[in-house]
Amino acid sequence: DKNFSGHYGVKFPMQVFSKLIDEGKVGTHSKLDLRVTSSMGSASDEIALIDTTCLNLAIKAIPALVMAKSDKEFETVQNKLIADMEATGVAKSIKWWNERYDTVRKSFGY
Length: 110
Description:
Layout (H helix, E strand, L loop, with lengths): L1 H7 L5 H9 L11 H5 L6 H22 L4 H18 L1 H18 L3
Helix pairs in contact: 4-5, 4-6
């Protein structure tokens, strides 16, 4: 916590996230309707395969991201991860999940 806080110039880690929330750069789940997320169901085999592949790519990349010795090395690993995810069809998965979320959300009157 001290290294993280020192790096970002804050007293405690949550201050970084609080600032991002205040700036509208990240959201919270404070207004999340659990009926929507619990009613989304399962994805098709194709979407599930994309999701699983992306998860495995991310898990595999985490050590290299955490252990990067410089910002440039981090960006290189990050860019490769993003390119690998794009090659698996992550855009198709994101589109499917967003459309599914919107459909279910509308069924509850939102």
